[in-house]
Amino acid sequence: MAERTSLAVRDLAVHFEMEQGTVRALEGVSFDLHAGRTLGIVGESGCGKSVTARSILRILDRPGRIVGGRILLDPGAPGETDLIAMNAESERMRGIRGGRIGLIFQEPMTALSVHYTVGNQIIEAVRQHSDLSKAAARDRAIELLREVGIPRPELRVEAYPFQLSGGLRQRVGIAMALAGDPDILIADEPTTALDVTTQAQVLDLLRRLQQEKGIALMLITHDMGVIAEMCDEVAVMYLGRVVEYAPVLELFTTPRHPYTRALLRAVPSILATPRQRLATIGGAVPHPGARPAGCAFHPRCADFMPGRCDVGAPPPLAPGHAGASCFLEVPA
Ligand SMILES: Nc1ncnc2c1ncn2[C@@H]1O[C@H](COP(=O)(O)OP(=O)(O)OP(=O)(O)O)[C@@H](O)[C@H]1O
Questions:
Q1: Cα separation values, 47 from 25, 29, 44, 59, 283, Å
Q2: Per the database record, which ranges form the ABC transporter domain (predicted)?
Q3: Rounded to the nearest whole angstrom, what is the distance from the C-alpha of residue 193 to the centroid of ligand 1?
């Protein structure tokens, strides 16, 4: 059966207008999310992973602005919708945010309030995206807590977030993300704040939910171990661009972009110690406001070709096709 593309991001560009000038946080970012599959987005801090997620959900922080591209929900289907063309605060976009597309944060307290019980917060989220009565929504909240593996959910529904451990709180965060019955989930570093054992449990949970529900999952991480364990395809980002896109096995066996190779070299014991965080690679990521000419990675690149890589930008990737945006891929 042909896989269904749930979301297609095309040539997404995001700018932050700062006093010091325009920061081009994203430039020409393209990728697809497919039902039942997981796309990993990986790269060092500041490469644009969170800005990508927040753009899809239309919750970009000011002064961030989407200045180009398309974000197509159900691309090619009769109901295809470009999320960029929608008013971020419109009722329809609010329905999509948390309804069709759920978001799991690194720190679950970003999504939870300290003032209300977890039950009341999930009930509220369920009711925002359905016509259920309060009593039926409460039953649904208990069912969601059970689904995410919270023991004794009929008691825990009355707990306040601060009464739960970090791991249980993240499970509640996942239950909140599932409250609108989404078919697309965006998880932004969902396990970074957790200890190693809890990380493994939360990743298992995400994988199980994704497979059972056929969800299209976009998983943002720094962590090549998480990528290896969880993802079908991977987009490697550097300074606001996707520099390599590949099926996960190809990425680890035949990485094509020197940046991907550097990331993998920085985690030499990847197979021995999964979930190890990326070590830093040589040099620092430049600020997007001071993007180097040519290929932005050239000052740190082991394969730098003077007169080529510092002059023109390598051709961008064709969306959905494996490859690297690098002059090594292009005949001289
Ligand atoms: N609120 C903001 N104001 C100004 N610039 C911002 C803001 N948020 C993001 N940026 C710019 O966008 C770039 C990308 O940020 P983003 O948060 O997407 O990176 P990231 O890859 O998610 O990093 P991390 O792994 O640290 O979360 C930043 O380097 C910064 O220049």
A1: 8, 11, 6, 18, 14
A2: 9-264
A3: 18
